[in-house]
UniProtKB/TrEMBL annotation:
GN (gene name): ileS
Positions of Zn(2+) binding: C929, C932, C949, C952
Purpose: Catalyzes the attachment of isoleucine to tRNA(Ile). As IleRS can inadvertently accommodate and process structurally similar amino acids such as valine, to avoid such errors it has two additional distinct tRNA(Ile)-dependent editing activities. One activity is designated as 'pretransfer' editing and involves the hydrolysis of activated Val-AMP. The other activity is designated 'posttransfer' editing and involves deacylation of mischarged Val-tRNA(Ile).
Pfam families membership: Anticodon_1, tRNA-synt_1, zf-FPG_IleRS
Organism: Siccirubricoccus deserti
Short motif ('KMSKS' region): ranges: 622-626
PROSITE patterns (alphabetical): AA_TRNA_LIGASE_I
Binding positions for L-isoleucyl-5'-AMP per the UniProt entry: E581
Protein name in UniProt: Isoleucine--tRNA ligase
């Protein structure tokens, strides 16, 4: 019997210090608005762009030619979308082994800048026309230069990498020289001509507009039905009848010179017997109206009882003559009836009044029949002296005067109003008109066959999305000759001389060469200097015999010709690999670039075209200051940082319209937080990792090899996106990999080994081997998007004053890591694990267990499922302390019942009607290990460490021995 008193109980030991917890300087909070400018300063100090170019020498080029934004005002969210998408594609191409030399540019000429300068004049009480032209142009240049510099800094703050020092601008002297040289090429090959034809004309801006400068809005137009009294017709019963026209532009009546009919249309000869009160129709008169439109006409014009005396084809009207509806008021000429294949019975009366000065169809029909093209409307939209009775009146205020004149002449049938889609200038937002003026055109269908070649080039181009091919193709197929002249001051002049004797442009290469050389040295202002005509024409020609053209070239021609000077000046190959802009540029920059290049080179300037949508608010509405729903990129950067904005772009389907707003940005910030936490966890668990710790692939456990297989799938996804420029879904897939495959599965399983195994344990080394691959791949794959965060995550592990993730290529992912059979096996394991997880959660809610490590799971398996994993491996995968495989011949069938919810939805496979769930949970036998928290029977067996399991005891003893 022992008479000694019992020893006092030993105090519980704290083992927390023996656990290998994550350790990293990479903080949980991004604090991006503060840190991002520091990274920008570091890259500037490193000369990162110059180093990229130097190390890329000899690589295959990748050229994304920048469509120039307009140097006017701060950047908006659409700019941010465009430049971020370009930057991601460029950076990804660079990291895929290309030389992605990106030259950003700006469009600097054009009307909006002119307007801004005119506003400053107005505030000072100055008239623009009183300011010397060269002085005005200098002010425009200074204004554009100021905004160019401001926008450049804003783009840089977005994290966009490029040759910002070597940027291009259409107002650079070298650019203006190249642009006039491109005009010269069309002049010399005969495609450039001056002609009279209707163009879209803005009375507010006093200039012709391109189709790309037009947008359509609802507009209320006055409408007019008017009589054209026949005084010559092919049949006796038509004598004295009136042809009735309908128009939504009553102001064009003074310009009328014909009436068009459809040769195959059935027309009714209508005898009026009664009219409604207030109608301008006269009982006893006879009218000609298209038979299908007669019922609607009767309603519109107040036609009562009437008789259709006969129906005739439009062709029967050939050779007919009518009186102008304003005869006796200065319009005393005959109006012929002409066949027009554009006449339909969709609306109106089936007759179209023809004003050759004010419509494409009108002009073409008039030209075919030798009709005059009167200049009835001046530059500012007022009537000229060629519109008797209306001179000085603005066309958009002329309808009442036209109604009154027709009523006085007895030709008014009816009047009304129509709300319809109508062309407006995208700058002034004011309605435009068709107006025939002398303009400079590039022929689409002469012997150079620009249209035909452009359509062939479209067929050979890769479009993302492919629907872009049809959009631009239909536009090119239907477009008229390209009007490239504008009647403004700030731009590159159409530097052409026209012979006053012949009216033909001078096509002299020596003259053009002198112009190009002068522009290169002095800029386009050289054209406006005193004595310019004599200087450029040379000593052998008399300037008095030539007209010096003062029109400037369409800014779309300018931007469309940027390939001609940007690529050669920067020693980049032609054609560019990619053009990337918003979907509206099918009729804008893509269109003009295609025509310009086909006209001068015979081929498209691009191999591929990528288009993105527009940015809307969270409700899908267009952004506007009046609605208060504008999201400014500057504010997003200030609150969240540029990486969040970049992540929003790449998490969106950019081929469609995108939405943004406060809630969407909060969602993106949460997605960013998950990605950042993934990087932080990797870094924390890679602390001290050295290459000697790496485990060969063949020795890795299946779980690690499954993770590496997933890397091969993502690597293939990224590299495919690099090749075909379709990034839709790539970064959501990477996020899902981080959140679902890693954080919620692999990391969760391997925490125990990483935190509690001995440093040299094969399992811990295998996991850190895979974590190393994950860190290298994820930082590289995220680098094109999260440019600042990826750099931070790289430097946190590989600190190097001269290093950068952006100097690296995408890591090599061996094809040998791909193991489809293994992936299928682990897909099945994860499905069965979901059943166990569901049962564990049910047990936790019922208070049966606390953490999953307090549990033992009994999983019913049958067939091949029984050999998927050992019980110990199942315990590891399910993060429980004990696991029992129960042989159940019905388990496979029940786990695959079609009515069972998918594991990814609820984590529950099936519960048979009478055999219970696949997984059941009970309390694990044994005691809890104070270090790893597993519940095991072996805990308590050690005298030295009675609260530890055998594994933890060995690790702690090893640590103690190493410390001693």
């Amino acid at each position: 019997m022992n008479d000694h008193p019992a020893a006092p109980p030993q105090a519980a030991r704290d083992y927390r210090g023996t656990v290998f917890l994550p350790d990293t300087p990479f903080p949980m909070r991004g604090d991006l608005p503060k840190r991002e400018p520091q990274w920008l300063a570091r890259w500037q100090q490193l000369g990162l762009w110059q180093r990229l170019r130097a190390q890329s020498a000899g690589r295959p080029h990748f050229v994304l030619h920048d469509g120039p934004p307009y140097a006017n005002g701060p950047l908006h969210i659409g700019h941010a979308l465009n430049k971020i998408l370009k930057d991601v594609i460029n950076r990804a191409a660079q990291m895929a082994g290309k030389d992605a030399d990106y030259v950003p540019g700006w469009d600097c000429h054009g009307l909006p800048i002119e307007w801004e300068i005119e506003k400053t004049y107005a505030k000072k009480g100055k008239d623009k026309d009183s300011v010397p032209l060269l002085e005005f142009r200098a002010e425009c240049r200074a204004y554009a230069a100021d905004w160019l510099d401001r926008q450049r800094e804003e783009f840089i703050r977005l994290g966009v990498a490029g040759d910002w020092a070597g940027r291009y601008a259409t107002m650079d002297f070298s650019a203006e020289s190249a642009i006039v040289g491109e005009i010269g090429k069309f002049l010399m090959n005969g495609s450039l001509y001056r002609g009279l034809r209707p163009v879209m004309w803005s009375p507010v801006e006093k200039t012709a507009l391109a189709e790309a400068e037009i947008e359509y809005h609802d507009h209320v137009s006055p409408t007019l039905w008017a009589r054209f009294r026949l005084h010559r017709a092919g049949a006796a019963d038509l004598a004295g009848a009136s042809v009735v026209i309908w128009t939504t532009t009553p102001w064009t009546i003074p310009g009328n010179r014909a009436v068009a009919y459809g040769p195959e249309i059935d027309y009714a000869l209508v005898h009026v017997e009664a009219v409604a009160e207030g109608s301008h129709l006269l009982p006893g008169e006879t009218l000609l109206v298209a038979l299908p439109l007669l019922p609607q006409f009767a309603k519109d014009a107040g036609l009562g009882a009437h008789t259709v005396r006969r129906v005739l084809k439009g062709a029967d009207l050939a050779g007919g003559l009518a009186a102008h509806p304003l005869r006796g008021q200065g319009y005393d000429f005959d109006v012929p009836l002409l066949a027009g294949d554009f006449v339909t019975t969709e609306a109106g009366t089936g007759f179209v009044h023809i004003a050759p000065s004010h419509g494409e169809d009108d002009f073409n029909l008039g030209r075919a029949h030798g009709l005059p093209v009167p200049e009835t409307v001046a530059d500012d939209g007022t009537f000229t002296i060629h519109a008797p009775g209306f001179t000085g009146l603005h066309v958009f205020k002329a309808h009442d005067a036209v109604y009154a004149a027709c009523e006085a002449a007895g030709t008014l049938v009816a009047k009304g109003r129509l709300t319809h889609s109508y062309p407006h200038s995208w700058r002034s937002k004011k309605p435009v008109i068709f107006r025939a003026t002398p303009q400079w055109f590039i022929a689409m269908d002469d012997e150079r066959r620009i249209r035909e070649k452009a359509l062939a080039a479209i067929d050979a181009t890769h479009f993302v999305p492919d629907i872009g091919r049809n959009r631009i193709g239909s536009m090119v197929a239907a477009r008229p000759d390209w009007c490239i002249s504008r009647q403004r001051a700030w731009g590159v002049p159409i530097a052409v001389f026209v012979s006053k004797q012949s009216g033909e442009p001078l096509r002299d290469p020596a003259v053009m060469q002198r112009i190009v050389a002068a522009f290169a040295e002095e800029g386009a202002d050289a054209w406006y200097q005193p004595g310019a005509a004599a200087r450029f024409l040379g000593p052998d020609r008399d300037p008095a015999l030539y007209e010096q053209v003062t029109d400037i070239v369409d800014v779309w021609f300018e931007s469309g010709s940027t390939h001609a000077f940007v690529l050669p000046e920067h020693k980049l190959p032609f054609p560019a690999d990619l053009y990337l802009e918003g979907s509206d540029q099918h009729r804008g920059w893509f269109h003009s670039s295609l025509l310009e290049s086909v006209g001068t080179n015979g081929v498209a300037p691009f191999k591929a075209v990528l288009t993105h949508g527009f940015v809307l608010d969270e409700s899908g509405r267009k952004m506007s200051k009046s609605l208060g729903n504008v999201t400014a990129p500057q504010e997003v950067i200030k609150q969240y940082g540029a990486d969040i904005l970049r992540l929003w772009v790449m998490n969106s389907d950019t081929t469609e319209d995108l939405r943004i707003g406060p809630e969407i940005l909060k969602q993106q910030a949460e997605l960013y937080r998950r990605l950042r936490n993934t990087l932080r966890w990797l870094l924390g668990n890679l602390a001290g990792f050295e290459d000697g710790e790496t485990v060969p692939y063949a020795e890795l456990p299946e779980l690690e090899r499954w993770v590496l297989h997933r890397l091969t799938e993502l690597d293939a996804r990224v590299r495919k996106a690099v090749e075909d420029y379709d990034w839709t879904g790539v970064y959501p897939e990477i996020h899902n990999f981080c959140a679902t495959d890693l954080s919620a599965f692999y990391f969760d399983i391997r925490k125990d080994a990483l935190y509690c195994d001995a440093p040299d344990s094969p399992r811990r080394r295998a996991s850190r081997t895979v974590l190393d691959a994950l860190h290298r791949c994820l930082t590289a794959w995220l680098a094109p998007v999260l440019v600042f965060t990826a750099e931070e995550a790289w430097q946190a592990r590989f600190p190097d004053e001269q290093g950068s993730i952006h100097l690296n290529e995408f890591p090599f992912v061996p094809e040998g890591w791909r193991d489809t059979a293994l992936a299928e096996k682990w897909e099945r394991i994860r499905g069965l694990r979901a059943s166990a997880t569901f049962s564990l959660e049910q047990a936790r809610r019922a208070g049966k267990i606390g953490s999953s490590l307090q549990a033992r799971v009994n999983l019913k398996l049958s067939g091949e499922d029984k050999s998927l994993l050992t019980p110990d491996a199942w315990a590891e995968v399910c993060i429980v302390s004990s696991f029992i495989i129960v042989d159940d011949p019905h388990a496979v069938e029940r786990s695959k019942q079609p009515e069972a919810p998918a594991p990814s939805d609820v984590g529950w496979l099936s519960e048979g009607q009478d055999v219970g769930p696949l997984a059941t949970v009970e309390v694990a036998p044994g005691a809890k290990c104070d270090r790893c928290w597993r519940v095991l029977p072996e805990v308590g067996a050690s005298a030295a460490h009675p609260t530890l399991c055998r594994r933890c005891e060995a690790v702690v003893d090893h640590q103690a021995g190493a410390a001693a």
